[in-house]
Amino acid sequence: MSLSNLRSPSAAPRHIVVANPHHLGDALMMFPLAGALRRRWPQAAISFAGLPYVEPLVRACEFFDDFIDSRDIVADPSLLKRRQVDVFLNPFPDDELAYAAWAAGTPVRIGNLLRRSARYCNRFVAYNSTLKGHVLDFYGRHLRPLGIDGVDTRAEPRELHGLTRVQRLGPRWAPLLGPDRINLIVHPKTGGQAREWPLASWLSLVRALADHGTFRLFVTGTAAERELVHAECPDLLSGRHVHDMMGRLELDEFLALVNAADGLLGCSTGPLHIAAALDRHALGIYPAGRGIDPVCWAPVGRRVHILRADGNCHPGRGACPRAKGPPCSCTSALTPDRVLWELVVPALCAQPRAVFRRHLGDEPAPLAPALARS
How far apart, in whole angstroms, are the C-alpha atoms of residue 28 and residue 221? Predict the structure, then answer.
């Protein structure tokens, strides 16, 4: 299939594969590309190639027809030929998948000319760094060789990400939520994929929110993350109006919980992006520093609220470890007081009914009078 044919409205690929064998947030960044492809070629089959644990997320997206385990492609590149794949997109470049598409003889293989995987591609985009803009804008460039002008991030979140197939929350969990309170998911860990906020700070914030009487809190995460939280800060998993959901939800159940809740508070991690994609309030606690800050990795949606640490994080220097997971001096400097009054209250409590009964000390002067009058 020639590039000129793909640019013609009368010609359409039979089967397009969008690949990203990484984490939830990385996978979700591919969904707007699939939406643009679906609008251009409604009859084409579009599959997502990734790791098995993201499959429920892919199945919830209306843009995809099928899911393919990316490890199966690497093990047997001829799988692409048997499935009649004629366009392969690999925006977050994976060398093994790029080689597999080349080995299978996939007619159109799009990649970044300035990455090592470009040797296996035959259609190109070119950018050296994604540090000066949002990753979705850079990934959207991979559509240009197909005659598609990128992704419109101003679209309504469900139209942009296509998460219209999320199941309803089941009878086991649905009774925990209700319209009498703000149902807020608290997601304290990141699976080691981003800078985290100290668990002691999470505990102070959760206690303040629980004592306010307006919030119902759901602490979420994986079973492995629950072990870490239980060992370091077990009190975070209990308390009045606090529900310990860590390690108790499959991914499809987690999607249903986010869809039923009012919002999610977390660090720069996949669940935060999912909340934004489902048009829920996404409250993000972000570090400072190029490549890890909201300039690159902010959730995309109309209910996104970000609190960014001051300064500029320099991993590997001083109190900022190279590892992504542990809190560093930058995120630790964000006090629970700041997160409460600069992030949570403005996003979710436009007209609070009472002043918070605080574990955090006195509220900042600019906000205190307004809250006292409400």
Answer: 18
Asked if pLDDT for residue 372 goes beyond 90, the answer is no
Q: Name 308's bridge partners.
A: 286
Q: How far apart are CA 301 and CA 78, in angstroms?
A: 38
Q: Is 172 exposed, middle or buried (0-12, 13-18, 19+ CB in 10 A)?
A: exposed
DSSP 342: I
Neighbours of 12 (CB within 10 A): 16
Rounded to whole angstroms, the Cα distance separating 48 from 70 reads 9
- Paired tokens of 313: 């994080």
Cα gap 195→316, rounded to integer Å:
13
**CA nearest to 54, candidates 18, 95, 106:** 18
CA distances to 16, 266, 270, 321 from 134, rounded to whole Å, are 24, 19, 15, 24
SS3 content of the chain, % helix, strand, coil (to 5): 40, 15, 45
pLDDT digits (tens, 9 = 90+) for 69-81: 999 999 999 999 9
Contact indicator for 198, 188 with CB cutoff of 8 Å: no
pLDDT given for residue 131 in this prediction: 65
**Domain 3-161 adopts which CATH fold?**
Rossmann fold (3.40.50)
The structure's pTM equals 0.89
Rounded distance, CA 182 to CA 348, Å? 8
Q: Are 233 and 200 in contact (CB under 8 A)?
A: yes
- CATH code reported for the domain at 178-359: 3.40.50.2000
**Residue spans per domain, the chain:** 3-161, 178-359
Taking the C-alpha atoms of residue 238 and residue 243, their distance in angstroms, rounded to an integer, is 7
CA distance 357 to 374: 14
369-to-63, 250, 353, 354 alpha-carbon distances in Å: 48, 43, 13, 11
